[in-house]
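G., before I forget:
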Amino acid sequence: MRIIKLAAISVALSLIGSASAIAQPKKTYNIGAAVYGLKGEFMQLWANSLKEHPLVKDGTIKLTILDGRYDALTQNNQFDTMITQKVDGIIFVPIDIQAGAEAVSKAAAANIPVVGSNTRVNSDKLTSYVGSNDVIAGEMEAESVIKAIGGKGNVVILEGPIGQSAQIERRKGNQNVLARYKDVKVLEMKTANWSRAEALTLMENWLTAHSGKINGIIGQNDEMALGAIEAVKAKGIDPKSIPTAGIDGVLDAVRAVKAGTMVSVLQDASAQAQGSLDVLMRSIVGPTYKPQAKIWDHYKSVGLIWGDGTAKAYSIPWTPITLKNADEMLAGSK
Amino acid sequence: MKNEFTSQPSASSSVFFDKLAEFGIVIAFIFLCICLSFANENFMTWGNWVNVLRQTSINGILAIGMTYVILTKGIDLSVGSLLSVSGIVAASLVTGEAAGSVWIAIPVGLCVGMFLGALNGLVVARLSVAPFVVTLGMLSMARGFTFIYNDGMPIANLSPQFRYLGQGMVGGMPVPVIVLALVFAIFWFILNRTTFGRYVYAVGGNEKSAKTSGIRTRLVVFSVYVISGLLSALAGLILAARTTSALPQAGVAYELDAIAAVVIGGTSLNGGVGTLTGTLVGALIIGVINNGLDLLGVSSYYQQVIKGAIIVAAVLIDVSRKRKN
């Protein structure tokens, strides 16, 4: 009993000690992160890396992550709650490009800064936006498939849920590139809702409808590209003979890149999450704030510049997954 | 044989209309296939039929369990969630370098489905809560377990032995199709050739008279939810094996396709009337529609409209049949 008490006291003392050590800015900050939904692998990674931000770990920031459950109304209600609770700042990953604007305005009216991350919202009240440009990813993947088939032939496109900002922008990127290649024909273009199972079925049917005619596969995310590869395999075709591309860099895709069956670009969830928190803190604390996340050093050479932390938008670069960095990514996940 | 317990006034006319309904759905199916084979030259090929069967297998297995439940006047909305939780539990046992034996993973996965199905059955049968409510609750709870189990992350890198369940071929037939055929044969036999099968019809036809004639109706009701849970789990294992990863969001809204297959197949939502053959044809109709419209390059939005229209048409047939009776 006494030992437990002693231990408890010493833990309490050490907590006080460490708290006073970091309490130099003398304040803890309440930050709310409203994300559209926590069911996908990407948003899981995003949320987990946000919790790994140095200031969250040392207790300076009290972070609350709110799951919007893929519903614009839920997200709006969560904004109301955060405004009532007078949080110091909000990170916003909206489900809908239009519906989120109203929520941002309400927060701005209450003098709460809002930094967007990952998905876009149509609002000029946003303090800043930290994300990756999906148009560029769409261009990169289309380019790599078309190059691999020698600039001519037939491709199919697996689209995300029609109307989501990532689908709209990735399609734009796909089409920017396709417009430059007159000898590339799009045989089919249809949504598989980011889903591996749906893409698998769709691709099986396309392989039947266009037997032997499909030269390349453009998947607007990795899951769908992976589903398409399974369909190709099931048909008894060597997946290496039909160049396939995806976007996001989920673990299974990294494995597939290693196996040589697809190409993909990594969307850095950690950089988007931690970067947006740094930018938000800068707007709360002021010019004395120094960014804490490692990502600013990591991406400095490829054009991500912190500056004074007040830019309206920060674009996190896409990293093509190669045989070389695939191993690092797989190792890093363990 | 089965109608001595049903509430229809005349056994012979009921048999006649049952047969007609089943016959009607087969004719509709053949008609659909003929139309599609004219519309697209690839439709009537061996390779495409392998696709259709493989794509139907998961919904077909779910729909067989659903038929049992609906025959007792119940409904199981939780099949999609049970599918996903069983798949992810089984997958966690066969992933990475420490991959265990499929002979452990498969039974464990099936037991998860059966256990959660048994919970459904217990509350429905013992506490007499409406099946719609109980299984709606389970839909949410089991989905929650799926996310809790692996912190919302998918489980990939499954062992080749496990993937065989979804990707393997035996004599030119995909393993999932063979599993569907076996499941159909077993559960057709149970429903049509055993006392338990007769009780399932009896409980759905008229629970009171079933009870007075000495049937342990609660046990029968309990059992159909266990069956539905078991078959949901089996479908979940096949889905994970097919897509080479168990996703926590897998199987969302699968209950709708399963119920649709049962209803298109002529099983009455009022219980007591219906056949597994009808359900199988119903599942095939959904599979063929999806496949055919993909082959023709029709937008997926129209696919949803067409599928919905067919479901309503099937129920209309069901209603008009009752009126005749």
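Chain A has two domains: 29-132+269-316, 134-266. Residues 2-22 of chain A form the longest helix (21 residues).

More on Monday.
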